[in-house]
Amino acid sequence: MSSGGVIRCKAAVAWAAGEALVIEEVELSPPQPMEIRIKVVCTSLCRSDLTAWLSQAQPQIFPRIFGHEASGIVESVGEGVTEFETGDHVLTLFTGECMSCTHCASDKSNMCQVLGLERQGLMHSDKQTRFSINGNPVYHYCAVSSFSEYTIVHSGCAVKISSIAPLDKICLLSCGVAAGLGAAWKVANISQGSTVVIFGLGTVGLSVAQGAKMRGASRVIGVDTNPEKSEGAKGFGVTEYLNPNEHDEPIQQVINRITDGGADYAFECVGDTGMVTTALQSCCSGWGLTVSLGVPKNKAEIAVHYGLLLSGRTLTGSLFGGWKPKSHLPSLVDMYLRKEIKIDEYITHNLQFEDINKAFELMIQGKCLRCVIHMPTN
């Protein structure tokens, strides 16, 4: 099938850390072998986009097109692609699945060795960019870059989904909602009647809560410094809300006291390595499990007293909830279509592409869960 020619389209380009995105005309090359070009229909802002946009880490990768949580329609395919054809509905994947490496062949991992998380702003296959402005490169984010009318991904970084799934809702399964559900079900394997504590009640944390509730957890304690989140969290399964600013003692002491020794499971969904230690201290001895999901904003090292681990507590990480994205996401889409899982309820704002900077403002202010950005239809 033809891979088409160069496309000129609009994209929201970040020129420097923390500076407002600028809608620019960019050139997008044809898909290379084993790549597909996608017309983005809807994309949402994930906190990891915000974290990377604000980051002062070196080296800084700009100009850049952020976005990775998206749905769209295949516009053209590159040489060797047989899995997709023009018109297919797809979700983008910030971490892919090649189906053949050691990790993809194992049921113990979703960390693809070929198409795993790409951090350098380049494509997996040739370490080049596909976007440019006046011949100068514009870098990718997570090898997706969905804040653009069109984008290119490796065919292993997209999954075909049912054409009846609403693209303006289902895009949230590209990252946040799937990550939280998987952390609860696959990584922690929450047991019925257990006590769960969740640090951070954003989309990921509330997805953990939804997953915990569906697994029959008896107590789901939500911890967040934003009091506006307390009431809405109940709709996702949170049974108790704690605001650390409202207590005179460290929050881990509060949790240990009200749970008679600590929770069975703790989830860090903030992106704060200090909070990882707090979460571990909030778990019970013997079998307490802490799962870290957040992307750190600055300090990346975790400091943990060995005694916490010696006493039987476990600390583990979770990328995309442990899901093998191409293998498992279609079943989550089916669950949504059968009304078995919530997605719509996480969408607090629908914005047009030209208003994309408002999404960043709302997230910084803590006034949204997910802002879905609708791309131009023409």
Automatic annotation (TrEMBL):
Cofactor annotation: Zn(2+)
Protein's UniProt name: Enoyl reductase (ER) domain-containing protein
Entry keyword set: Metal-binding, NAD, Oxidoreductase, Zinc
This protein's record includes keyword Metal-binding: yes
Family matches, as PANTHER family: ALCOHOL DEHYDROGENASE, ALCOHOL DEHYDROGENASE-LIKE 6
Matches recorded under Pfam families: ADH_N, ADH_zinc_N
GO molecular function: alcohol dehydrogenase (NAD+) activity; S-(hydroxymethyl)glutathione dehydrogenase [NAD(P)+] activity; zinc ion binding
Family of the protein in this entry: Belongs to the zinc-containing alcohol dehydrogenase family. Class-III subfamily.
Subunit structure: Homodimer.
One GO BP: formaldehyde catabolic process
Residue intervals of the Alcohol dehydrogenase-like C-terminal domain: 204-330
InterPro entries: ADH-like_C, ADH-like_N, ADH_Zn_CS, GroES-like_sf, NAD(P)-bd_dom_sf
Signal sequence coordinates: none
GO cellular component: cytosol
PROSITE patterns the record matches: ADH_ZINC
Alcohol dehydrogenase-like N-terminal domain: residues covered: 33-161
